[in-house]
Amino acid sequence: MKACFMGLGYIGLPTAIIAAKEGGVDIVGVDINPDVVNQTNAGHLHIIEPGMEEMLQEVVNSKKLHASTTPEIADAYFMVVPTPFKGNHEPDVSYVEAATRAVLPFLKEGDLYVIESTSPIGTTEMMAQIIFNERPELKDKIYIAYCPERVLPGNVIYELVHNDRVIGGLNPKSTEKAIEFYSRFVKGTLHKTNARTAEMCKLTENSSRDVQIAFANELSLICDKAGINVWELISLANKHPRVNILQPGCGVGGHCIAVDPYFITADFPMESKIISDAREINNYKAFWCAEKVKNSMLEFELRNHRKPTIAMMGLAFKPNIDDLRESPAKQIVSKVMQSCNNADILVVEPNVKNHNVFKLTDYKEAYKRADIVVFLTAHDPFKTLEWDEEKVILDFCGIYKRV
Q: Which of 9, 76, 365, 370: disulfide with 112, CB 3.0–4.6 Å?
């Protein structure tokens, strides 16, 4: 069994590694970035994921996995590429289409084609139409399905194997063929459905999270005005046996929760009011945090007759990862820096060695030097820093759970 994975990013590469190691599948991983290809073939993981580099080295050394900038003939093809939005938050499936067209010459009777990329409803059918328009002889001769990923960065190895998966084929035979592949390495239950339901299921899962986070963020805005500690409030409310409020933050980021709800609101604008409002609340929270930082800087200058040194703690969209995609923390840092000429701003991200835009500072040094400390991402190293009454601390992510 040989599989071709189109895309070696945060999902494609780990899935390819697990399929090779746990499923015994021969893998060719394809990426348009030659640096990613070269690093992968050298056994070096280009993302941060605990334990994954050792597994990569094992499957590369055993020749179960290799990377390339071009597809190869295989038995199964997986589209695991980004699906960003364009214009006014309209879904952009051009990457999925480009990956699909790239494998078109290699498809043959009996092959399996699966989209894992989060996609608007109907994308699987759209790609099938492209395939059959270009290769009409494959009509009813290949298996086409949609199977969205369900993993938490930082715990990918466990979750790729143990999480349940939803698999929706264009027809029952395609569903069964996809289940046959995933059962090689997934120990969780594989749930059968159709492609449209599987597509909507992924969007629903992330939109649900977005709405829940928006409720917590809205509470934080209310509590700030009311003079209430939102962390204590949520802790107390969660003592109720049927209440489980999430923790607020400085917004919502990442390529899933911050993006996927737009795939619903773009196609169903009149029917998705709560989902749309949640997106607005979570986007506004980042703006609100940036304004709080700027106001604190002005207050410090008025009080001390000098400009403060500010430590912006964290750029990643969630704790203990290096993923900056759609990160509200990064947006906040950019907004603050753009609004303050010649301000002494120290940018901290312990999971990234170098950044093209920001000069990064060690977290201990930044905390020591800063007059104002702004916690944007709850990385574990930050939790080792002791509260300092001499500093102005803006804790947007609950490091100390004080306000």
A: 76
Q: Give the integer Cα–Cα distance in Å for 238 and 42.
A: 48
CB 307 within 8 A of CB 301: yes
Q: Which amino acid is at 384?
A: T
Classify burial at 356, counting beta carbons within 10 Å of its beta carbon; exposed 0-12, middle 13-18, buried 19 or more.
exposed
Which strand (E) or helix (H) includes residue 346? strand 344-348
Q: How far apart are CA 23 and CA 5, in angstroms?
A: 14
Counting Cβ atoms within 10 Å, is residue 277 exposed (0-12), middle (13-18) or buried (19+)?
A: middle
Low-confidence ranges of the chain (pLDDT < 50): none
Name the residues annotated as catalytic: 202, 256
CA distance 22 to 178: 16
**Whole-prediction pTM:** 0.89
pLDDT of 315 reads 97
Query: What does the pLDDT read at residue 85?
Result: 81
> For residue 289, what are its two tokens?
């945090």
pLDDT at 152: 82
What totals of helices (H) and strands (E) does the chain contain, helices first?
13, 14
Closest among 244, 243, 281 to 261, alpha carbons compared: 281
- In sequence order, the β-bridge partners of residue 312 are 347, 374
Alpha-carbon distance 402 to 116, whole Å?
40
Q: What is the pLDDT of residue 48?
A: 84
What pLDDT does 363 receive? 97
Nearest CA to 66 among 97, 43, 50, 87?
A: 43
User: Measuring CA to CA, which residue among 306, 208, 303, 294 is closest to residue 257?
Assistant: 208
- State pLDDT tens for residues 195-234: 999 999 999 999 999 999 999 999 999 999 999 999 999 9
Structure confidence at residue 154 (pLDDT): 82
Whether residue 13 contacts residue 51, with contact meaning beta carbons closer than 8 Å, is answered with no
3-state helix, strand, coil in the chain (%, to 5): 45, 15, 40
